[in-house]
Write a structure and sequence with these properties.
Elements (H helix, E strand, L loop, with lengths): L1 E5 L3 H13 L4 E5 L7 H5 L8 E2 L11 H9 L2 H10 L4 E4 L2 E4 L4 H14 L3 E3 L4 E6 L3 E5 L2 E5 L1 E4 L15 H7 L4 E7 L3 E3 L10 E10 L2 E13 L2 E3 L1 H12 L6 E5 L6 H20 L2 H6 L5 H9 L1 E8 L7 E6 L4 E2 L2 E2 L5 E3 L13 H16 L1
Parallel strand pairs: 1-2, 1-10, 2-6, 10-21
Antiparallel strand pairs: 3-5, 4-5, 7-8, 8-9, 11-18, 12-15, 12-17, 13-14, 13-16, 14-15, 16-17, 19-20
Length: 374
């Protein structure tokens, strides 16, 4: 049996290792269009590789209920056990799991060592142009044709294209009649109608809420990073994904930049000590410049409900995960319902998670489930 896995990201690598562990005599080959494997993993967690999250999962964590079903069977403890078998051990910052080394390079080295130990071949600079499904599957690449018995796509979405996930294969999937939910950038900075140039580079901890008309859609506490044309930071990344998942008519973001100080306390202080003392006591100097046009009568309410109108995301180049992808209706246990021995796993699927290791955790669980049904 010869199996070809397309995509040498973490899910493609782990899928290949699990196949060889289950079927040692199978020939497993990984095709990667870049000149190096695991480039996106290297950048994960700013190079520290936040690979899992042991926090409680909610309906907001993922865009599709399929993820919660899969993670009930292939849960955090089983994924941690799998990483231990790769000689990767975890340390925690709150609920976020990082390798003890706090280095993505060490994780990459361990995964590649497992590939070598299991005689898994990785063909680099090999781009899939198309494939044909007959008694055998013929994969057409820029380096010639490859025949195999089973073909697994672990090609990611369209986010961070320089790191390998450029979305070009979705045109091929469309030609093979797969249903695909529109690809959108998730977990990325956003552009706003308001001019934030004076705040560029300023970091403020606060509460962020997303509104659709008079309804709060999502809210979270965390650090906000102001950019020249909008907002960034983990809480904003999460809101960018929530916006991309749903077609809200009116996308208003409100910031409470003093979430731990009550409105009444601020009103009393402003009234008693005046605007200058109030601003110096509570407000970042750059934010003071942004607030210059806000009157004393509106100042406290504005600080607790600072409005920003979403106009667009920063796009796939700045995105960490892709919203949309191959619909689950096309698949049965990750195998195509209408092309024999063709499979899809990981971010190529129509599912995404919030920031903090949730995506990699779920995508790895899909690899575990696929191999169990292989």
């Amino acid at each position: 049996m010869k199996i070809v896995v397309v995509g040498a990201g973490p899910v493609g690598i782990i899928t290949s290792i699990l196949i060889k562990r289950k079927y040692p005599l199978f020939d497993v080959v990984i095709l990667e269009q870049l000149d190096k494997p695991l480039k996106k993993l290297k950048a994960t967690g700013n190079g520290k590789c936040n690979f899992l999250n042991k926090g409680n999962l909610s309906s907001e964590t993922y865009s599709n209920i399929e993820s919660l079903i899969t993670l009930q069977k292939y849960n955090y403890e089983k994924i941690i056990e799998l990483f231990h078998s790769f000689h990767i051990f975890e340390k925690y910052i709150n609920d976020l799991a990082y390798p003890i080394t706090e280095s993505s390079i060490s994780v990459i080295n361990n995964l590649l060592n497992e590939c070598n130990a299991n005689n898994i071949e990785i063909k680099l600079s090999t781009k899939v142009i198309d494939y044909q499904v007959n008694e055998k599957i013929k994969i057409i690449t820029n380096n010639g044709d490859i025949l195999c018995d089973k073909l697994i796509f672990s090609t990611g979405g369209k986010s961070s294209p320089k790191l390998g996930s450029d979305g070009t294969l979705f045109e091929i999937f469309n030609n093979h009649h797969y249903q695909i939910n529109e690809l959108k950038p998730g977990l990325c900075p956003i552009k706003t109608k308001e001019n934030t140039k004076v705040l560029d580079g300023t970091r403020i901890k606060g509460k962020v809420s997303l509104w659709d008309n008079d309804n709060v859609i999502y809210e979270e506490n965390g650090e906000i990073l102001f950019k020249d044309h909008g907002l960034s930071g983990i809480v904003i990344f999460n809101i960018s994904s929530i916006i991309a998942r749903f077609n809200y008519q009116y996308k208003l973001i409100k910031l409470d930049i003093l979430p731990n100080v009550g409105k009444k306390t601020l009103e009393v202080y402003l009234s008693k000590h005046g605007r200058i003392n109030f601003l110096n006591a509570f407000i970042h100097p750059n934010m003071q410049k942004y607030l210059e046009k806000i009157s004393d009568n509106d100042l406290v309410n504005y600080i607790k409900n600072m409005p920003f109108q979403f106009t667009s995301s920063y796009g796939f180049d700045y995105s960490q995960v892709t919203i949309g992808g191959i619909k689950y209706d096309n698949l049965n246990n990750y195998q195509s319902k209408f092309e024999n021995n063709v499979y899809f796993v990981g971010e190529v699927l129509d599912n995404d998670g919030l920031c903090g290791g949730y995506n990699l955790m779920y995508f790895i669980s899909t690899a575990m489930e696929l191999v169990d049904h292989l």
